[in-house]
Design brief:
single chain; mainly beta; Cathepsin D, subunit A, domain 1; two-stranded antiparallel sheet; 2 helices; 47% strand
Protein backbone atom coordinates (compact mmCIF):
# COMPACT_ATOMS: atom_id res chain seq x y z
CA UNK A 1 0.00 0.00 0.00
CA UNK A 2 2.68 2.48 0.98
CA UNK A 3 4.65 1.83 -2.19
CA UNK A 4 1.65 2.39 -4.47
CA UNK A 5 0.48 5.49 -2.60
CA UNK A 6 3.98 6.94 -2.55
CA UNK A 7 4.42 6.36 -6.30
CA UNK A 8 1.04 7.99 -6.95
CA UNK A 9 2.06 11.03 -4.90
CA UNK A 10 -0.67 10.37 -2.34
CA UNK A 11 -0.24 10.66 1.42
CA UNK A 12 0.48 7.50 3.39
CA UNK A 13 -2.02 7.03 6.25
CA UNK A 14 -0.73 6.88 9.81
CA UNK A 15 -0.50 3.34 11.21
CA UNK A 16 -3.35 1.99 13.32
CA UNK A 17 -2.75 -0.54 16.10
CA UNK A 18 -5.30 -3.33 16.28
CA UNK A 19 -5.74 -6.51 18.28
CA UNK A 20 -4.88 -9.57 16.17
CA UNK A 21 -5.20 -13.30 16.44
CA UNK A 22 -3.54 -16.09 14.49
CA UNK A 23 -6.00 -18.02 12.30
CA UNK A 24 -4.15 -20.90 10.63
CA UNK A 25 -7.49 -22.06 9.19
CA UNK A 26 -7.63 -18.99 6.93
CA UNK A 27 -5.46 -18.81 3.84
CA UNK A 28 -5.76 -15.00 3.75
CA UNK A 29 -5.29 -12.36 6.43
CA UNK A 30 -8.50 -10.49 7.28
CA UNK A 31 -8.80 -6.92 8.58
CA UNK A 32 -11.89 -5.38 10.20
CA UNK A 33 -13.90 -3.03 8.00
CA UNK A 34 -13.61 -0.19 10.54
CA UNK A 35 -9.78 -0.34 10.38
CA UNK A 36 -9.81 -0.23 6.57
CA UNK A 37 -12.26 2.70 6.66
CA UNK A 38 -10.10 4.61 9.17
CA UNK A 39 -7.15 4.14 6.80
CA UNK A 40 -9.25 5.64 3.99
CA UNK A 41 -8.53 2.74 1.65
CA UNK A 42 -10.43 1.85 -1.50
CA UNK A 43 -11.17 -1.76 -2.35
CA UNK A 44 -8.79 -3.36 -4.85
CA UNK A 45 -11.43 -5.90 -5.90
CA UNK A 46 -13.89 -8.52 -4.70
CA UNK A 47 -13.85 -12.27 -4.30
CA UNK A 48 -15.93 -14.98 -2.70
CA UNK A 49 -15.06 -16.85 0.45
CA UNK A 50 -16.47 -19.79 2.35
CA UNK A 51 -17.57 -19.40 5.94
CA UNK A 52 -19.77 -21.25 8.38
CA UNK A 53 -22.69 -19.32 6.94
CA UNK A 54 -21.87 -20.36 3.34
CA UNK A 55 -20.47 -18.41 0.41
CA UNK A 56 -20.00 -14.67 0.89
CA UNK A 57 -18.74 -11.83 -1.30
CA UNK A 58 -15.91 -9.88 0.33
CA UNK A 59 -13.89 -6.80 -0.56
CA UNK A 60 -10.12 -7.02 -1.00
CA UNK A 61 -7.63 -4.34 0.03
CA UNK A 62 -3.88 -3.89 -0.25
CA UNK A 63 -2.22 -2.88 3.05
CA UNK A 64 1.10 -2.78 4.80
CA UNK A 65 0.91 -4.97 7.91
CA UNK A 66 3.36 -5.10 10.80
CA UNK A 67 3.10 -7.59 13.64
CA UNK A 68 4.36 -6.36 16.99
CA UNK A 69 5.80 -8.52 19.75
CA UNK A 70 6.96 -7.70 23.26
CA UNK A 71 10.27 -6.34 21.94
CA UNK A 72 8.97 -4.50 18.85
CA UNK A 73 8.21 -5.34 15.23
CA UNK A 74 8.38 -9.07 14.52
CA UNK A 75 7.38 -8.96 10.86
CA UNK A 76 6.33 -6.42 8.22
CA UNK A 77 4.54 -7.32 5.00
CA UNK A 78 4.15 -4.44 2.57
CA UNK A 79 1.60 -4.55 -0.24
CA UNK A 80 -0.29 -7.46 1.34
CA UNK A 81 -3.71 -8.27 -0.10
CA UNK A 82 -6.21 -8.79 2.71
CA UNK A 83 -9.92 -9.54 2.95
CA UNK A 84 -12.36 -7.25 4.68
CA UNK A 85 -13.68 -8.69 7.94
CA UNK A 86 -17.19 -7.26 8.21
CA UNK A 87 -17.62 -7.98 11.92
CA UNK A 88 -14.74 -8.11 14.42
CA UNK A 89 -14.74 -11.26 16.53
CA UNK A 90 -14.66 -10.61 20.29
CA UNK A 91 -12.56 -7.48 19.86
CA UNK A 92 -10.18 -9.12 17.35
CA UNK A 93 -9.72 -6.74 14.42
CA UNK A 94 -7.12 -8.69 12.42
CA UNK A 95 -7.05 -12.42 11.70
CA UNK A 96 -3.53 -13.33 10.61
CA UNK A 97 -3.85 -16.06 8.01
CA UNK A 98 -1.53 -18.59 6.42
CA UNK A 99 -0.42 -16.02 3.84
CA UNK A 100 1.87 -14.55 6.53
CA UNK A 101 3.20 -17.81 7.95
CA UNK A 102 5.66 -18.85 5.17
CA UNK A 103 7.98 -16.01 6.26
CA UNK A 104 7.88 -16.98 9.95
CA UNK A 105 8.73 -19.57 12.52
CA UNK A 106 5.61 -20.62 14.38
CA UNK A 107 6.12 -22.41 17.68
CA UNK A 108 3.07 -23.84 19.40
CA UNK A 109 3.67 -24.94 23.00
CA UNK A 110 0.52 -26.86 23.90
CA UNK A 111 1.38 -27.60 27.55
CA UNK A 112 2.19 -23.92 28.20
CA UNK A 113 -0.74 -22.75 26.05
CA UNK A 114 1.46 -20.30 24.19
CA UNK A 115 2.26 -19.46 20.59
CA UNK A 116 5.45 -17.75 19.43
CA UNK A 117 5.78 -16.13 16.03
CA UNK A 118 9.28 -15.12 14.93
CA UNK A 119 11.20 -14.38 11.75
Amino acid sequence: MATGLHQAGQPIPAPIQAKASLDPGSNVTCVAANILQRLGLSSSGQTTTQSIQGTAFVNLFVVSLSLLGPTGVVLTESDLQVMELSQPLSGIEVLVGRDILPGCFLIVDGPQRSVTLAT
